[in-house]
Design goal:
The protein has 224 residues and is of the alpha/beta class. It has seven helices and eight strands, in the order αββαβαβββαβαβαα. The strands form two sheets. The protein has a six-stranded mixed beta sheet, with helices on both faces. The protein has a two-stranded antiparallel ribbon with strand order 1-2. α1 packs antiparallel against α2 and α2 crosses α3. The radius of gyration is 18 Å and the shape is globular.
């Protein structure tokens, strides 16, 4: 496992303090019973969004080179893309944001895209919260191709659960990479998170919870 970086530690401390990352017993949308749960919706104040965006910005700078547009699919991707381009500006990277309407507009600023126009020339990075099945990301990629995008570099999410999907042994992020020839990455992955938090916050794993976390990872971890 790669050494954890300072911004990843800060992100995990932030996620725990905001109760966005919790350990216990949770039923996921997939039907799996998980001993941990991540809810990016817990970052909802101006201060929290500003802080979250700095971690996204650091991860984007680490994983991607020069690009032009940060695309955040509606709805959760809208505040993420707006706040993160501002955070990137603080790091010396001036890029634009774009998002999509749920329905195309036929007057005024026509079309389905809001923000920076999308053409074949723009180099695009997608931003989202987490990826489970990957269906929503595939829909976003299809939409971007439909409006003329030809240079989609990749996808950044907050937490990579690194779980095998319901129909293969690969994680959703790895399937997105392989199916679309793009880079898919996260601020931090769950294995790094567990390794760090079990040492820095052992109180989170009382009453045999740590063993349950490890057993869950062993059962559902992806093979990529």
């Amino acid at each position: 496992m790669a050494a954890i970086k300072d911004y990843q530690k800060d992100f995990l401390e932030f996620a725990i303090a905001s109760h966005a990352l919790r350990f216990g017993s949770f039923t996921l949308k997939s039907g799996r019973f998980s001993p941990y749960f991540f809810n990016i919706g817990n970052f909802h104040s101006g201060k929290e969004l500003k802080t979250l965006s700095t971690y996204y910005a650091h991860a984007i700078k680490e994983n991607f080179g020069q690009f032009d547009v940060l695309f955040g699919p509606s709805y959760k991707g809208i505040p993420l893309s707006v706040s993160t381009v501002m955070a990137l500006s603080d790091l010396g990277e001036d890029v634009s944001y774009a998002t999509n309407r749920k329905e195309s507009k036929d007057h005024g600023e026509k079309g389905v895209i809001m923000g920076h126009p999308i053409t074949k020339e723009e180099r695009i990075v997608l931003i989202d919260d987490v990826v489970t099945s990957g269906i929503s990301v595939e829909e976003s990629l299809s939409l971007l191709h439909d409006v003329g995008a030809e240079k989609i570099l990749g996808l950044i999410v907050s937490l990579d659960r690194k779980e095998k999907s319901l129909h293969s042994s690969c994680s959703a992020l790895k399937e997105i990479e392989r199916n679309n020839n793009i880079k898919a990455c996260a601020i931090v992955d769950i294995d790094t998170a567990i390794d760090y938090l079990s040492q820095s916050h052992p109180d989170l794993f009382k009453d045999g919870l740590y063993e349950k976390v490890l057993a869950y990872r062993e059962e559902y971890k992806s093979l990529d």
